[in-house]
Amino acid sequence: MTHLLIIGGSDAGISAALRAREVNPAVEVTVVVADRFPNYSICGLPFYLSGEIPDWHNLAHRKANDITREGINLLMDHTARAIDPAAKTVSVVDREGQSSQASYDKLVIGTGAVPASPAIAGLDLPGVFLLRTMADGFAVHEYLTAQEPESAVIVGAGYIGLEMADALTHRGLDVTVVEYFDSVLTTLDPALGAIVGAELQRHGVKVSTGVAVEAIEQQPGGTLAVNGSNHFHTRAGIVLVATGVRPEATLAASAGVQTGLRGAIQVSRTMETNLPDVYAAGDCVETWHHVLDRYVYLPLGSTAHKQGRVAGENTVGGHREFAGTLGTQAVKIFDLVAARTGLRDAEATEAGIDPLTVNLETWDHKAYYPGAHKLHVRITGDRRTGRLLGGQIVGHRSGEISKRVDVFATALFNDMAVDELNDVDLSYTPPLSSPWDPVQMSAQAWIKAQQS
Amino acid sequence: MTHLLIIGGSDAGISAALRAREVNPAVEVTVVVADRFPNYSICGLPFYLSGEIPDWHNLAHRKANDITREGINLLMDHTARAIDPAAKTVSVVDREGQSSQASYDKLVIGTGAVPASPAIAGLDLPGVFLLRTMADGFAVHEYLTAQEPESAVIVGAGYIGLEMADALTHRGLDVTVVEYFDSVLTTLDPALGAIVGAELQRHGVKVSTGVAVEAIEQQPGGTLAVNGSNHFHTRAGIVLVATGVRPEATLAASAGVQTGLRGAIQVSRTMETNLPDVYAAGDCVETWHHVLDRYVYLPLGSTAHKQGRVAGENTVGGHREFAGTLGTQAVKIFDLVAARTGLRDAEATEAGIDPLTVNLETWDHKAYYPGAHKLHVRITGDRRTGRLLGGQIVGHRSGEISKRVDVFATALFNDMAVDELNDVDLSYTPPLSSPWDPVQMSAQAWIKAQQS
After folding, report:
1. Based on the domain organization, do B7 and B53 belong to the same domain?
2. What torsion, rounded to 10 degrees, do the Cα atoms A57, A60, A66, A67 define?
3. Active site residues of B
4. Model-level pTM?
5. Does A52 map to a domain?
6. A310 & A368 share domain
7. B140 phi/psi in degrees, rounded to 5
8. Are A41 and A163 in contact (CB under 8 A)?
9. Is B406's CB within 8 Å of A416's CB?
10. Cβ distance A286 to A261 under 8 Å?
11. Is residue A51 situated within a structural domain?
């Protein structure tokens, strides 16, 4: 009987475990989980901290006993310390420091990512938090409850930073967001980032862009002073630092697993590392990008699930390949949804493509039907070949934006040309769309621009 | 200079006109419009009659002068009486009975559809209406306003019938829906139709299925008695008959244009009829079905737009092919959205395929985030080859259902296998979806069922 050992109990690890058992119910699966929270939705932490989800237990994608019921052994509160690829063993240590050896026939490494600690003085002060694990979430929650700060500074205006700006505003705090680049949510084009910035300000969030935070200092009375470039000074009762993550691949690298981009584990499309019978998946690996046709580092929960599923299937004899990320991302900030897939203009240019990007403002459904909102659509295609490269949409949360972006994503998956989008029989009813869906209207605007 | 003549000023005709001018600004285009309402959204009539759209002018996709500004001549209040394909002329007659000849180099026929008058006695009584044209809409509106009926019977529980049930309930009438088949909305599987039926009843609509309406009679005082099979008897102040449409192809057939299914005009994939330089598009033609790989009769506004665009492009030298319908349809009934694409189980069986259909009930987004609603997803695939054949979803209108069905549609357009859906990088954020979108969860349930 094959023994599958998995290091890491988050999205990639649990997906791999479930898929392996599904494909081959005879496989013995053990997952080494560093804490007591396997398969938790850390993407849900902002909504726990906002107060919208009163009970953190609900953040579990699955409860521990749902997982064990599938015949998966969970080794909780255990940390993997070393992999011996020759002996096919992993040393693990429990909370009391007791160590033991786990052997494997197949190993999946899903050690995830850790916050990229930026060069800011004062990160270890009380009231300053990074947000990554369930334990981080509990620490922030306890501080918010016990200290009742009235104001917050959030360093970093990416997805997590902006979700936390929404969450803490919802909780009643005065929030300031500080971003190093010149616009918020730089995964979107600046024109769309500006719309998101305006939404933040409409809800009372102060937004400072083009500021490098340099130091956080504790004032008498416990208030935190945050100082940055361009004479940025402000004070707050709590500071959250959300400036991105880096792969956690030290364990793998020590065992001789090859790493690459930003130190992430290099894997084949079948999610195998350079070591025999050792797979890796999730936020700790380089991710194949379908549109760019090369590896990138792009850690996302939805990708971790897919990679884990592929790795799990292959450990029990499957031959599945990870199809690749499309760079799809979505976020809700107050009443707005912002979503994207594929390449933006600048990303395409950087990849040596000659892109054309067209902006379209149109209604989410027939304007005569009540409740119509404007969508801001940006579509990018290859000017020479006409191939679709990417799409971005920002607008009101009722505009079915994320699944419209998924229409773009499904088109990208199939290497469609921009013009072919007009041939797809998309649904239409006046309360929900137009005879040409906004996705298609943007394709028609693109074709006009390409031909002019 | 080419002269393009178009018969019909609705979706197909105006799309053809606009596309021809877009591709070749030198082409001279004339559209013969039977009334004064070119390019009106007749799909919007229910929302005008509900009172949600106070001004019917807003139903125009484009105002007449938006169309003429594109260099298109509109011959309004003119009816085409005969086509002479040898002389390349069309006789038209205006409201005063004045006739004239219009010549063409290329002709597009977009004469649409007319209500299929069912075998019911009393269809010509005052207070009994069919709903197809703007004029029909005005007549119903006038009757509702002048007579203020307190109750309505709607014959036919298809899209229009159910939208009118919603609309008249919204207006304060007591509504009864009568349907010949055993469930409402028979374009969905009965299990999903039952959910729609329950939603109607929840909003006070009486639903009688399995009833063939036989006669409508006027009672003293003007009340209408509606009698049908299975001892069905009821009374109402207004009766709407919405039992489907048939193609309006008599003009074309008289000129020697070949017709087929249900009398619809036969066209090639380039939207050409058997007569040289004569094209046809929209509700009057047979429509290519991409999944069935054959022609069907399936009149829809979104399809008419696409076919019109293809015809228009080809009249000015293009070589575009209509890619085919996927059978995509969506409707909002009260707080529910019901949408479908591709083939249902029974449709696939009828086409000689061995289908497998799997039912999945799941949340539209992570259940821990407020506002989650259950989606009812049905996915159909080819049991032998694994090819995706269709998808249906019913659920709360906030569940991005129509665009989720469009993900299925885009997959069908690309002939994807069910299992490939799991490889697509669809968007995820807890307030809007799950790491595996419900579309993908249904694909995984299908794969499990196929393998068991």
Report:
1. yes
2. -130
3. 43
4. 0.97
5. no
6. no
7. -65, -45
8. no
9. no
10. yes
11. no
**How far apart, in whole angstroms, are the C-alpha atoms of residue B32 and residue B78?**
6
Among A326, A427, A439, A441, the strongest candidate for a mutation testing the B interface, having the largest count of B CBs within 10 A, is A427
Q: Which residue in A has a C-alpha nearest to residue B368's C-alpha?
A: A58
Total tally of structural domains belonging to chain B = 3
Task: Scan for tokens 């139709």, then name that residue.
Answer: B193
Tokens linked to B69: 């500004």
- Asked if B425 lies within 8 A of A306 by C-beta distance, the reply is yes
Nearest CB partner across the interface for A302, out of B331, B409, B428 = B428
Q: Are B306 and B290 members of one domain?
A: yes
Strands B238-241 and B151-155: parallel
Same domain for A259 and A406: no
Record the tokens describing residue B152, joined without a space: 């309505």
Domain for residue A55, yes or no?
A: no
Determine contact, residues A217/A127, Cβ cutoff 8 Å.
no
Q: A341 and B427: CB-CB below 8 Å?
A: yes
Nearest to A305 among B52, B322, B436 (CB): B436
Kindly state whether residues A300 and A234 are assigned to the same domain. Answer: no
Q: Based on the domain organization, do A109 and A257 belong to the same domain?
A: yes
A405 Cβ under 8 Å from any chain B Cβ: yes
Tell me the β-bridge partners of B101.
Answer: B91
Substitution target from A269, A313, A403 for chain B, most B beta carbons within 10 A: A403
Residue A401: which CATH number? 3.30.390.30
- If you search the block for the tokens 């616009």, which residue do you land on? A183
Contact yes or no for B427 and A329 at CB 8 A? yes
The answer to whether residue B327 is domain-embedded is: no
Q: Do B425 and A405 touch (CB under 8 A)?
A: no
**CA dist., res. B439 & res. A38, Å (int):** 25
Residue span of the structural domain in which A443 resides = 335-451
Chain B contact present for A303, CB below 8 A: yes
Do A220 and A293 belong to one domain? no
Please list the pLDDT of chain A residue by residue as tens digits (452 residues): 789 999 999 999 999 999 999 999 999 999 999 999 999 888 999 999 999 999 999 999 999 999 999 999 999 999 999 999 999 999 999 999 999 999 999 999 999 999 988 999 999 999 999 988 999 999 999 999 999 999 999 999 999 999 999 999 999 999 999 999 999 999 999 999 999 999 999 999 999 999 999 999 999 888 999 999 999 999 999 999 999 999 999 999 999 999 999 999 999 999 999 999 999 999 999 999 999 999 999 999 999 999 999 999 999 999 999 999 999 999 999 999 999 999 999 999 999 999 999 999 999 999 999 999 999 999 999 999 999 999 999 999 999 999 999 999 999 999 999 999 999 999 999 999 999 999 999 999 999 999 88
The number of helices, as runs of H, and strands, as runs of E, in chain B is 11, 25
Answer with the one of A241, A263, A295 that is the final residue of a domain.
A241
Q: What is the value of ipTM here, to two decimals?
A: 0.97
Give the residue from chain A lying closest to B415, CA to CA.
A414
Nearest to B430 by CA among A136, A287, A167: A167
The verdict on A296 touching B (C-beta cutoff 8 Å) is no
Residues B447, B346 share a domain: yes
- Which chain A residue is nearest to residue B327, measuring alpha carbons? A425
Interface of B with A in 2-41 (CB under 8 A): 11, 22, 41
Nearest CB among A407, A416, A436 relative to B407 is that of: A407
A282 neighbors A10 (Cβ within 8 angstroms):
yes
Residues of A in contact with B52 (CB under 8 A): 369-370
Final residue belonging to a domain, choices A241, A264, A292: A241
Query: CA of A114, closest CA in chain B: separation in Å?
Result: 20
Query: Which residues touch A252 (CB under 8 Å, ≥6 apart)?
Result: A83, A109, A111, A259, A265, A273, A278, A280, A284
Residue B224, domain CATH: 3.50.50.60
Amino acid letter at A52?
E
Which of A281, A301, A280, A312 has the alpha carbon at shortest distance from A22? A312
